[in-house]
Design brief:
- The structure is a single chain.
- The protein has 220 residues and is of the alpha+beta class.
- It has 2 domains: 133 residues, Replication Protein E1, Chain: A (3-Layer(aba) Sandwich), CATH 3.40.1310; 83 residues, no CATH class.
- The protein has a 5-stranded antiparallel β-sheet with strand order 4-1-3-2-5.
- Helix 5 packs across helix 7.
- The N and C termini lie far apart (64 Å).
Length: 220
């Protein structure tokens, strides 16, 4: 977000009197009150908090930026800039920004679409008061397939053979998106885990010489 886009967005909200449900704001650890997390929880708003951005640099590519968090807050109904500012003022935060859509901002919490910036881990996003990105978007087929491959790698790494153990791990350690894919593709993962349970581990990159020989004999 550039300063120009921030100023423009704020102007449209404050002077135009527009109301929005979805808002974003930045908070700085150095100026946060000690009970800042309780303030956010007690607001009752679904809120997403980014990992601590402590590895960002200025446009010169060298000067470190002040550590900060990016936050998304979702109101039950469209609300005014001044109402949201009442919350951000309690956090000693800069002015909030209205969002037209949540998904792009959620991806910015980890710089997912900004490869030139430091890539933060999605598992470190904090979701408060029932916030779930799944309420704002559906994964594309390509995104689902990428997550399925990542989950297969988790199964192989930890040598899981039971669906319950696998789901417990996903629930406690991985993101909402990964939990959604794992829980909505039960048959796929259960069959894979069952197969892993009853078959010795194999390297899928290693060719079976017996099978290759049989194939060659059949081709003669």
């Amino acid at each position: 977000m550039t300063n120009e886009s921030v100023s423009s967005n704020v102007a449209s909200v404050t002077h135009g009197g527009k109301k929005k449900r979805n808002w974003a704001f930045v908070i700085y650890p150095e100026s946060l009150p000690k009970d800042w997390l309780d303030i956010l929880k007690m607001s009752g708003l679904p809120i997403a908090i980014s990992p601590l951005h402590d590895k960002d640099v200025e446009a010169d590519g060298v000067t470190p930026k002040k550590p900060h968090y990016h936050c998304i807050a979702v109101y039950g109904n469209p609300t005014t800039f001044s109402n949201v500012k009442n919350l951000t003022d309690r956090l000693n935060a800069p002015i909030p920004i209205a969002l037209d859509q949540v998904r792009g901002m959620y991806r910015y919490l980890t710089h997912k679409d900004n490869p030139e910036k430091y890539q933060y881990d999605e598992k470190d996003i904090q979701n408060l008061n029932g916030f779930s990105i799944l309420d704002f978007c559906e994964l594309t087929k390509n995104e689902v397939n990428k997550i399925k491959r990542a989950l297969l790698a988790v199964i192989r790494e930890h040598q899981f053979t039971e669906y319950r153990t696998f789901m417990d791990y996903v629930d406690l350690n991985l993101s909402d998106n990964e939990f959604d894919v794992a829980s909505n593709h039960t048959f796929f993962f259960d069959k894979y885990l069952t197969s892993s349970r009853h078959a010795p581990p194999q390297n899928p990159d290693t060719k079976n010489p017996d099978l290759a020989e049989t194939a060659l004999e059949g081709a003669v």
